[in-house]
Amino acid sequence: MNVAVTWQGIYPALLTPFTAEDTLDLDLFETNLRAQIDAGVRGLIIGGSLGETSTLTRPEKLQLLERALQVCDGQVPVIVNIAEQATRDAIAAAQEAEANGADGLMLLPPMRYFADSRETVEFFRSVAESTKLPIMLYNNPVDYKIHITVPMFQELAQIPNIEAVKESTRDLTNVIRMRNAFGDRFKIMGGVDTQILESAVLGVDGIVGGLVDAFPAETVALYEWAQQGKIKEAFELYQWFMPLLELDIHPKLVQNIKLAAVATGIGSEYVRAPRLPLVGEERAHVQGIIDRAMANRPSLAVPA
């Protein structure tokens, strides 16, 4: 039976751990999953950009889904990312995820082809109508060049299982724009690590995070303190966290965050080619950011 997806709280966009032999490291994947659940995340997203989705095979994605469902055991929903070039492939991936027990989907616009507004809406409509699963659209024109605008959402609002948006435009006023246009019709999930506190203050329903893969407790605390009005405590934690969070808004975010997860004992540095682990001055720079953060890692105890 599917777990209800509320699109609230912290949803990590999970890393995909590999072995030195370039196979899935499912045991390490489970270690990270358990750390996320123990920290209080409210959902899990597998096979996203941070999960190196473009290099994963369909069978590997199903292996990750199977292990995630086993570990979660109904505690939190498991969301599968859909990032395909052809509409028919996206439909097939969505139906395959549903048949194998996924609780929901994160759906990206068409990959590679720069679809116009009409084509993008039809792509989303076709995939949504092929499945009963709840869907969160990923609005990230910075990286994927397609902006899902308010007029496009007005068309998509007629499709009931399109329930949420991962808001990664990096324009925080878009949160207010969406609320003004739709009220609570769409759940809004902040999607940029360096805007977590601002997004929470603006009233997003949750956060899809990256550095949460290495620092789950800190990410959950930051969002929840902001929600609870503990702004002073949240701001101080945010100041400490910011150099790490900036590792997420970088072309090598996968390597960066995997290196951070090594430091906290819940990840490995192995990536899948053509990605390569960081080396030389680049690695030293990122490791320095991580080391400084670890040396000053704050207590999460907050006065009542």
UniProtKB/TrEMBL annotation:
One of its GO terms (molecular function) is 4-hydroxy-tetrahydrodipicolinate synthase activity. Keywords: Lyase. Pyruvate binds at residue 208. Signal peptide: none annotated. It holds the Pfam family DHDPS. The keyword Flavoprotein does not apply. CDD domains: DHDPS-like. Belongs to the DapA family. This is Dihydrodipicolinate synthase family protein. It comes from Siphonobacter curvatus. The lineage of its organism: Bacteria, Pseudomonadati, Bacteroidota, Cytophagia, Cytophagales.
